[in-house]
Amino acid sequence: MPGLKYSRLVIPRxxxxxxxxxxxxxxxxxxxxEEGRDLTACFREASDARExxxxxxxSRIRCELVTDIPEGDPLEKFREASxxxxxxxxxxxxxxxxxxxxxxDGRIALRLPASRAFGTGGHESTRLALLALEEEPLDGLAxxxxxxxxxxxxxxxxxxxARRAVGYDTDLEAVLIARENLRLHTFGGRVALAAAxxxxxxxxxxxxxxxxLPEEFLPIERSxxxxxxxxxxxxxxxxxxxxxxxxxxxxxxxxxxxxxxRTEGGWACVCLERAS
Length: 276
Fold this sequence. Notes:
CATH topology of the largest domain: Rossmann fold
CATH superfamily of the largest domain: Vaccinia Virus protein VP39
């Protein structure tokens, strides 16, 4: 389709939550692409992109708008982001919408339409959290996914044999999207989802995972760590490497010790257990 033009609206990482995606989606984007720490919404019509930009400005979200970009195929980046890909030793991430791809033998398909919500495995922090879960012996355990978004980590835990996985998010729209994703998986019945704040979550879990920025995680840290059973594990991803030491210093002060660490593209994921 030579000669076509499109527009890009770049949303900064700190503003990337499901409420913002829902707001931008009202203006008919072609799709969303995660690019490093940012999210890019692509639009066919420059007028739609401008309206979305104004709506974000009204919500005090600064973004970068570029219009009239010549592109032979303006959907190619979105299509590339929607292609299935292997992750770790066992996962097959399929962000297509719709998609009937079949995973290679020995891999578990996680079907998470890229156009719906964050957490398709395309961002480094999500990949790191999935790799950390893959290393945990989850058979028969209870897992809590804090700030579940698309539900990807709760689904991954169920796929890896967790007896039950609970995901919660303060954003109702994110939970509704995650519930749609559960229906795409035979093991989705072992996942429970709730729109709730941390204080409303009850029960104890052998593994608690949180893929959140430090400024999101630290205010609810005690509520989250209080859900970890004695001898359990806490996995925290979404940590910019430049703030990792500060985060670990605070958690060590709460009697947590580092049990594992991964990094990718400026992001860190840590696995912690209570110090004896």
